[in-house]
């Protein structure tokens, strides 16, 4: 172990012996999400730095407390990127927080999630032991891929100390096209385009203020010839590159007016995950959503306590929904996991954190 890892392991062993909860914290940029933030703060900013980077191999190994912005700047200097566009939500967000949250930005539906790019990870478990899973190449992944289980676990299984990530070259061309249409028409278009060999990368639909019609923004990304050909085929208005950069960045980090206005009005932000082919979610009093991921992710701004119609509509569509970001300083209650997933998580929790000290209740109520 490194000195920083040894210090963390000692604190973990002491906390486990006393069954004292620990609140794992990188930069705290995602403290608004999930269950209670109880326990003694275990700061992870001492785990910083890039361990190794092989641009020709498209692999980077980095310590968990490294600022995400620092990693992305290093990759950009070599013409590479994290294609899933991890949200920052604020200054100082860390690589460990990125993996623990498992959140991805506008390109998620086209390029995959965070866990799809995790090749390996090191973890300090609830016994203070340093465990290593996976490696630095895809072929090292065999049997149960524990390193990817950590993505989206919200720090409930242990302290991530280091991760190896697959990176990709920055696409040579990109263009954003804009279409005026209703939500139903946007979903129809996206479903039709999804069945064609088009370089679709990201999409977002939002209603115009006070209307049911809105605008669909579609980002094309890939080889220059493919992007140009798709643009000619699809038509639409071309959004200038600088405006497109602002748009997609604001969606990634929830700085877009849809999110900021909702919170300013005291509404809770609800995230609905449904099949991309799901129709409009019908429910009494449901406002028009902001639709991302080619129809698969739909955001709703709802007054506190006013999500019953959304929950029912999402259930009928075969999807899943939960409060993502509550207004003011209230806490969102984690959504119950399906029984099968809950059984798996309980078993993992017992194996990795037998004393139950890591972020209790953050992912699963009471666990």
Can you describe this structure?
Helix content is 29%, strand content 26%. With 367 residues, it is of the alpha+beta class. It has two domains: 183 residues, Uridine Diphospho-n-acetylenolpyruvylglucosamine Reductase, domain 3; 153 residues. An eight-stranded antiparallel beta sheet has the order 13-10-12-11-15-16-14-17, sandwiched between helices. A five-stranded antiparallel beta sheet has the order 3-4-8-6-7. Strand 11 and strand 12 form a beta hairpin. The longest helix has 16 residues. The model has no long low-confidence stretch (mean pLDDT 93).
CATH architecture of the largest domain: 2-Layer Sandwich
What is the radius of gyration computed over CA atoms, rounded to a whole number of angstroms?
21 Å
Arithmetic mean pLDDT: 93
Q: Characterize the biggest β-sheet.
A: 8 strands, antiparallel
Q: Assign the CATH class of the largest domain.
A: Alpha Beta
**Envelope shape:** globular
How many individual helices? Answer: 11
CATH topology of the largest domain: Uridine Diphospho-n-acetylenolpyruvylglucosamine Reductase, domain 3
- Give, in order, the helices and strands: HEEEEHEHHEEHEEEHEEHEHHEEEHEH
Task: Please supply descriptive tags for the structure shown above.
367 residues; 2 domains; 11 helices; single chain; Uridine Diphospho-n-acetylenolpyruvylglucosamine Reductase, domain 3; 8-stranded antiparallel beta sheet; 5-stranded antiparallel beta sheet; alpha+beta; 17 strands
């Amino acid at each position: 172990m490194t000195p920083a890892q040894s210090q963390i392991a000692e604190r973990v062993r002491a906390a486990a012996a006393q069954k004292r909860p620990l609140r794992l914290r990188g930069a705290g940029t995602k403290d608004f999400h999930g269950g209670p933030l109880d326990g003694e703060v275990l700061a992870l900013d001492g785990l910083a730095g890039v361990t190794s980077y092989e641009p020709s191999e498209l692999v980077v190994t980095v310590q968990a407390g490294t600022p995400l912005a620092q990693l992305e700047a290093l990759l950009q200097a070599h013409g590479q990127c994290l294609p899933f566009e991890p949200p920052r939500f604020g200054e100082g967000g860390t690589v460990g927080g990125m993996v623990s949250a498992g959140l991805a930005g506008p390109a998620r539906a086209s390029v995959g999630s965070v866990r799809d790019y995790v090749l390996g990870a090191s973890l300090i478990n609830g016994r203070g032991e340093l465990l290593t899973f996976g490696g630095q190449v895809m072929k090292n992944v065999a049997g149960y891929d524990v390193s990817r289980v950590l993505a989206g676990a919200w720090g409930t299984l242990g302290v991530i100390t280091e991760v190896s990530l697959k990176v990709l070259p920055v696409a040579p061309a990109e263009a954003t096209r804009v279409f005026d249409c209703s939500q139903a028409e946007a979903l129809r278009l996206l479903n039709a385009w999804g069945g064609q060999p088009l370089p679709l990368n990201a999409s977002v639909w939002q209603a115009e203020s006070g209307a049911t019609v809105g605008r669909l923004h579609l980002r094309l990304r890939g080889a220059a010839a493919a992007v140009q050909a798709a643009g000619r085929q699809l038509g639409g208005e071309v959004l200038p590159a600088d405006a497109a950069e602002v748009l997609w960045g604001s969606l990634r980090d929830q700085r877009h007016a849809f999110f900021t206005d909702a919170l300013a009005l005291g509404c809770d932000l609800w995230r609905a995950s449904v099949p991309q082919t799901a129709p409009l979610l019908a429910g009494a009093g449901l406002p028009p959503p902001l639709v991302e991921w080619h129809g698969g992710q739909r955001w709703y701004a709802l007054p506190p306590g006013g999500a019953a119609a959304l929950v029912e509509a999402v259930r009928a569509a075969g999807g899943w929904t939960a409060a993502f970001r509550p207004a003011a300083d209230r806490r969102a209650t984690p959504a119950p996991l399906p029984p099968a997933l809950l059984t798996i998580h309980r078993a993992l929790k017992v194996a990795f954190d037998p004393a139950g000290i890591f972020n209790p209740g953050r992912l699963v109520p009471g666990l």
